[in-house]
Amino acid sequence: MKSSNQPTLFGIDIMCNMTKWKVFDFSADNYCPTGNRVKLEDKYFPLVEVTDKFSRKTVSYQASKKDSVSRWLKYKEGFSCDLVETLLSEMDIKANDTILDPFLGSGTTAFSCNAKNINCIGYDILPMSKIAVNAKSYVLSYNLKELKSFRQFLKELKRPESYTEEIPEIRITESAYPKCTSQDLSFFKNAILNSNFSSNIKNLGILALTNSLERLSYTAKDGQYLRWDVKSEKTIKANLERKEKGKEPLKVKLDKGTLPSVSELVISEIDIYISDIDMLQKSFTEKSGKTVFVQDSALKQLPLLSANSINGVITSPPYCNRYDYTRIYALELVFLGKTESEINSLRQDLLSCTVESKSKRDYLKDYYESINRIDDFNKVISIVDENLVLSEIKYALEQRLNRGDVNNKGVLRMIKGYFDELAFIYYELYRVCKEGAQVAFVNDNVRYAGEVIPVDFISSDLAESFGFKVKKIYTLHQQKGNSSQQMKKFGRVPLRKSITIWEK
Length: 504
Fold this sequence. Notes:
Elements: E1 8-9, E2 12-13, H1 35-44, E3 48-51, H2 81-90, E4 98-101, H3 108-114, E5 119-124, H4 127-137, H5 144-156, H6 179-193, H7 199-210, H8 213-216, E6 219-222, E7 225-228, H9 233-244, H10 262-283, E8 291-295, H11 298-301, E9 310-315, H12 325-328, H13 330-335, H14 340-349, H15 361-370, H16 374-385, H17 388-403, H18 410-432, E10 433-444, E11 446-448, E12 451-453, H19 455-465, E13 469-476, H20 484-490, E14 497-503
Parallel strand pairs: 3-13, 4-5, 4-9, 5-8, 9-10
Antiparallel strand pairs: 1-2, 6-7, 10-14, 11-12, 13-14
Helix pairs in contact: 1-17, 2-3, 4-7, 5-10, 6-7, 7-10, 15-16, 16-18, 17-18
């Protein structure tokens, strides 16, 4: 059993308190069987290393807010350059090696790798990723003179009164902006796309607008949802309807004050880009690595990647926490041209992490048949179905559902689909990695209806079934809490946030 390099935490010896990070209460009130989860905990806990190398900030967007280039797209689910750089060093990744990130997000892995002359292959299904990755991968090649000319072009843009076209809406984004803001967004977007600037400069302009949407709107990202400003038409209308029905008004705490203008924000973003690019181009003298990005699901793309071609993997999948990226990033998706039906389809294509996710088993079976690898499909499904811990969790949640403890039966389908799909990811990662390559996975453990699901150890167990050796499981000092509803009904069980390290 390991401790971090730092001998004490808040003056308490870590070695004497390692049990703080070990789970003993897997099922509230011992309502369901826990034997297999206990065995799994005992098997992998000796590999846990409570560390100060990483923190809540480095495994999230928080540490990137002021980092050059990383701040170009506010992607709350991403991790920091510091995390990537630490892992690259630990993995002993060399120049011209290739790192894979199957959930590339805002492109932090790719940017950090490229800065060290390391190549990166990445996949992500969200269109914001493509724009951000393209913008960041070109950072050393931008023509600053052209970019400053583009800034002047934006500064002189003024929407004529005759221009009344607005940004399209779907149900969830209806009345998200003041009318004039929606018109300005449409006007600026079209002006940028129809300008004579290079495609890379245009892409930066669209990224600048995309990164400004939340601040321009009556919304704010808040966990699983978009919160709405007290001044929004949606809030006002809802309260009028509640008043007519004799109900209390909604308790809306969000008040963003006076919203900024499109021109003000987009020029502010471009100023940040100019500053970051100028600094990097002056200070960066080494060769840059290359990024190959495909806007698609890793479930589809990984099986097409050559075997034994990857030197390492650094990634963080969507967590099994019911967060719906298509709702959280609805403003961005609609702005980038996605319709309601396309967004609904996108929701199903994402890794299963919402209660609306449907099983992908039939799709995966058809897909593996189409690429003449049905034996691989059967192997993965067999390992998942025979996993005793997953069977125990499935049974426990079914019992909780029958008891009325599960507030949405889609939770059971989501968790089953989540590990189904991760198993295919792990299987393909083993296939594409070279011998000696290491895989770093950032993930959160979760708890539903009083049942703890140790994602870090289950993932390690599946990875080991496919051939990986589990080297260590980094765990943050700071543990994750439970929802207020769960704590009220079942009490609190602190959960690990981990970075699992596997080796081929």
